[in-house]
Amino acid sequence: MNFRAQLFFKIKKIIIYLIFSLLYISCTAQTNAGKNKTHESKIVLTISNSELIVDKNYGARIISLKYKNKEILAGSKIHAENFGSTLWTDPQSAWGWPPYETLDIKPYQFIVKNKEYRFTSKPDEKSGFQMSKFFRVSEKDSCFILNYQIKNISKTNQSVGAWEVTRVLPGGMSLFPSAPDSSIMTSSNLPGVSHKNGIIWFSYNFDKIKSHAKLFSMGSQGWFAHVIDNMVFIKSFEDIPTSEISKEQGEIEIYTNGDQLYTELENHGKHENLKPGQSLNYQVKWYLRTLPSNLDKSEGSTDLVNFIKKQIHK
Predict the structure, then answer these.
(1) φ, ψ dihedrals at 187, nearest 5°
(2) DSSP category for residue 241
(3) DSSP string, 211-232
(4) Residue pLDDT, tens place only, 53-68
(5) What is the pTM of this model?
């Protein structure tokens, strides 16, 4: 091979290398820039060290919530039906069991608008309602913002409230501020509950959970937290007066599965009378945070309560 041929061959190799390098850099940049992604029926939202996954084909249910790659929610492998986080209508006496399929497990329509992921169910003739769920991330608060809407599609007035049901893995400790006029309702039978410093505490004890049990209570201040090891999962929402909650429910409820498979962290919005065509709206913010290593995490800890309040009132 003469000198010119060798030089041409080397230049050709360099050009090919540069082209492939530029293509690689471009693809990598696009992948790293996209925080929220769609994989078939799964929509992934991420913020900081937190990841939330929604399945639009299964009632727009939140099927996974991870913090630093640690799963918080009880998944479908734990229980085939009762898993993840969903939205129900209250009171339960209006529908018994199971929940309305169209609203709970059937596919939702899905669009993205203004960086918000919007899911809408088909109109459910059986219940007379249609649900919408709008999810987005907040860079400012480093949290997930969940907006729920329930629309009356029937031809008559209907009374209803929004009921968020979030199933977490068993264990840990749950806490929330109790209302001054009502702490634990008489229908509660959940073991391991205490009332200290204006806060209701529930520490999961595998030796005491022998059957299905539930706590019904009225909260205050608009937050509900769950501590797992060195992290805390916080729900923040509008505090609702006792008079505006369904008489059959509590503003905050905790349910433990008798087989020790999962715990339900439940919060209720305002119970409203909707005319035909009217809708109610309910917003919940989800925060995932690491607890300081020197923070007192025991029941009654005012430092723990103050840390939680600081996250939602920044």
Answers:
(1) -80, 0
(2) -
(3) S-EEEEE-B-TTEEEEEETTEE
(4) 999 999 999 999 999 9
(5) 0.87
